[in-house]
Amino acid sequence: MSQIPVKQYLIVVIISIWEISNLIFFIFIPKLNQGEGESICQ
Questions:
Q1: What secondary structure does DSSP assign to 1-41, as a single string?
Q2: Model confidence over 1-42: pLDDT tens digits?
């Protein structure tokens, strides 16, 4: 019987996915907002 803490593993995976998604939001949302602003200004 291998004792693997599945809950801890899931928590780590969820936190890592959450942080990656936050990074993606911080990187891409300003670019999208700039693109929309430029298209609206034009």
A1: -----HHHHHHHHHHHHHHHHHHHHHHHHHHHHHHHHHHHH
A2: 577 788 999 999 999 999 999 999 998 887 777 766 565 555
